[in-house]
Design goal:
alpha/beta; 12 helices; seven-stranded mixed sheet; Rossmann fold; amino-acid transport; Peripla_BP_I; 45% helix; 383 residues; signal; Leu-bd
Length: 383
Amino acid sequence: MTSTFHKTALTVALTFAGLTGATAAFAQAQEIKLGFAAPMTGGQAQYGKDMQNGVVLAIEDMNATKPKIGGKDVKFVLVSEDDQADPKTGSVVAQKLVDNGIQGMLGHFNSGTSIPASMVYNRAGIPQIAMATAPEYTKQGFKTTFRMMTSDTQQGSVIGAFVVKKLGAKNIAIVDDRTAYGQGLADEFEKAAKAAGGKVVRREFTNDKAVDFKAVLTNIKRSNPDIIFYGGAETQSAPMAKQVKELGIKAPLVSGEMSKTDNFLKLAGPAADGTVVSLAGLPLDQMPGGSAYEKKYEKRFGSKVQTYSPYAYDGATAMMTAMIKAGSADPARYLPVLASTNMQGVTTKTLAYDARGDLKDGGITVYKVVGGKWTVLETVGGK
């Protein structure tokens, strides 16, 4: 009985020692916290989830390589928050993430949340790579701000010139939702359209919660525009497209990348046909890593690639790669390496930032809805 007891005790001891050793080995991989914030609830939740999926996939791919920083095993982990597409909530969330010890920030999605939140990250010295496209985001003079997508300065200039030179629009009406993104894109569009010889016959505004635009559109109808440009999201552009048709307005709707979604097609229905949008970047099938990314994404999430996930994937990869190259996850040490990023991404052959943190060449694509489907009209740069 004594012998049996000793054998059992020895087995337990060895098993415990084995488990302890395995746990210790696993614990040796230092966790590197990366922050993430976007609208995860509400009317723009589909954008936030799309963006988050790209970040999650990038982190999983990087962790699969068993990364080391400074010779030590590391594991990247994501700390996510819902900023509800609200500027005040965005700032609160930003401080919460900083207090939680993040070493890099991936987000926010909206320009309206990214800009105030960037002040919080800058004070903490934490690099931030946001989806924000408003010019103001990187014009603040911070060394910590970087983009995942081409700015509205580039996008607005392309679509503004396109509607005048390629669509033959002379008289133009503009509506924006008064967010940092919507108004910023509309402003850049207006500059480019005027420079190309177009005339703005009406400028109206709404908000990012509205769904009834008949009063605004009735005012616009009197001006007899050739096109109506809308700066804002699909939750407004889709019902606006329907109401344009209902009021008998012949002018097509033109918008930015937040309208270039399958959900827009679903919400607008037959009224979507003829809508023209610009999207920062290349079509998925023209991206250098688009085909491989599409297969990987569909296998991982069981759904099709939407708009933003490839850009989020590249942004997250750029940040993690900078940490590895710098041999440190200390923001002060890897920030200069991030700023000098020069790598091939999914979305572009050369992902690099200028002195402000803008992408050097992100490219712009113009799409049109034909027969209920998005079709490419023109691609500028980014190859």
